[in-house]
């Protein structure tokens, strides 16, 4: 059984004295000192402070995961890029140290996944709108084990997307993105129509397949927001899958990957700012949490069907895909291939703990 970590940290309240990226060497001096010079330089190249903070925490969490789980000296816990530019950490069993140079020669994997040598720790990071998430698995089963994670924040882009929809229409909005969707997914998105807001209008309502949850007047902001929630959910799921394979959204097989019966996770109960809900292809569980997710009931879409993944006309049964909502405003998707990689709740990290843990590992040498 692999050791799995699922970390989440909110960067928005961090380094309050920083007003622009160039302030970080002073405002975040202890954090910046934990990075290698190339990592620190990459952080400072970001124009917007919010993006720089995301880059800083992403780099720090990757290094922390490598050093903590593998016992690698902090200075050598540096990820490299594989053939697809995906961050990885290679172990060199032929020497007493660890690979810190370029990856070894590539050997073919499955569905675009390639490896350049033993990887005792698989990991993937995503960030958006101030939040960084990391998924990692130690001693994952070889050779086809892989994982990917993505996070989206619908409120961050909703206003811009609503302007496009109101100006050009829903079908045009879907068409702008359909080159990265399967044909069936684009059809389903186009077919999303708002149902009646009240029961007395039911006799005039048409509810195409998969739209029974959209109970709003057509053209209302509520109906457009509901349709966009489906769009964001699909985008997040597909991005996590693509990141699992290590390829980009321009992979030639994108049109052959199909999510079926997807739906946005239900909104969390009013139990606090970190409440979360999820749907999954794996255990089919729906979760509700205050600070972490916990199993609760079976998950289905509005028509009672479970989320499924199909590739080149065949149902995929060896990958578990999960979509969950965090803090109401975020969706997090994970895609995991490999037995023995069991996902649980995300651990919401406190910045003080991250800093103390990282500094202790660095001091250890």
TrEMBL record:
GO CC terms of this entry: cytosol
Native source species: Escovopsis weberi
Name of the protein: holo-[acyl-carrier-protein] synthase
InterPro entries, sorted: 4-PPantetheinyl_Trfase_dom_sf, AASDHPPT_N, P-Pant_transferase_sf
Lineage: Eukaryota, Fungi, Dikarya, Ascomycota, Pezizomycotina
A GO biological-process term: lysine biosynthetic process via aminoadipic acid
Annotated Low complexity bias: 95-106, 273-294
Pro residues bias: start-end ranges: 263-272
Bias kind Basic and acidic residues: ranges: 198-214
Taxonomic superkingdom: Eukaryota
GO molecular function, one term: magnesium ion binding
SUPFAM superfamilies: 4'-phosphopantetheinyl transferase (SSF56214)
